[in-house]
Amino acid sequence: MIFNIEKLVRPHLLNFTPYQSARRIGGKGNIWLNANESPISIKYKFKNSNLNRYPESQPKNMILRYANYSKINPENVLATRGSDEGIDLLSRMFCIPEKDAIMIFPPTYDMYSIVANIMNVDVKEIPLLKDWNLDLLNLKLHMNNVKIIYLCRPNNPTGNCFSEKVIKKILKIAYKKAIVVVDEAYIEFCYDKNISSWLCNYSHLVILRTLSKAFSLAGLRCGFLLSNEKIIKMLSSIIPPYPISVSTSDIVEEALNKKNIYNIKKNVVLLNKNKNWLVKKLKSNILVKRIHDSDANYILAEFYHSDKVFNFLWNKGIIIRDQSKKMNLEGHLRISIGTRSECEELIESLNFLKF
Prior knowledge:
- 34% of the residues lie in helices and 15% in strands.
- It is an alpha/beta fold and 355 residues long.
- The protein folds into two domains: 5-40 and 260-351, Aspartate Aminotransferase, domain 1 (Alpha-Beta Complex), CATH 3.90.1150; 60-257, Aspartate Aminotransferase, domain 2.
């Protein structure tokens, strides 16, 4: 028995374009500067070999350690499979398909809009201003039906942090209308700018975190959603039964001990030094038109002949991320910060490239 299975599919998903992750795009090489991962591998040990029982849905010791790290209460923490699951949970909890909307500020992280599109939730785009700041006037004018406002901070791919003053203004505008989600995936690289202490003052604030970046655990897929106790309880009611594996909680507990947190902070200092070195070298390269300031573990640079630069590096096995098709980013390439030797090889290759 054969029939056209496409007739059973939700129509708007028949030709859906998935998120173009670094691994999906591919490439061959040994210098990977395209996914904002940590280039520093940290050895963690899996201690629990008892895998015949289901794990806790929200492992208490792991949650407590992350709460202590963030200086908030355990009741304000929900563990998720990467911060992407947090985005999915928020959309499913707060947005009614074909009625509600989310608001984003492109260029920014694509998964906010992709999750909304899967759910058939409208996406209101308010482009960033030329200086990468938020357009508050247009935000106010387009709040109708908006349930979630996403702010990536530092923003991916631009690398800048929106000011605390502006975020507070948005929280005021959104009060009793929408929740404000601040995505702090890269906050470890500018941790003095984190706003977890605000949770006790804003009942509609949600913060997304991940261990994929500074903690060198991209392969583990573990993130956290921080908010007030009421929102955490609501989201807990719709999260799958066992989102965090025994091996994941084991490794995360180890990653969050005092020794490893100290080492992670040292790695952040090292990567920020590598970033400063790379920026200095790129500024002297004739192919580079502009480099944007960055508070994250990547830089966004505008190149002359960016397509040729990208393809040249790609063919040499140096894989970076082309951002030129994103809104207002023609000619821009994003470069994750690697080890010093990886940064040196990138610069050496660019110095030999001439048109």
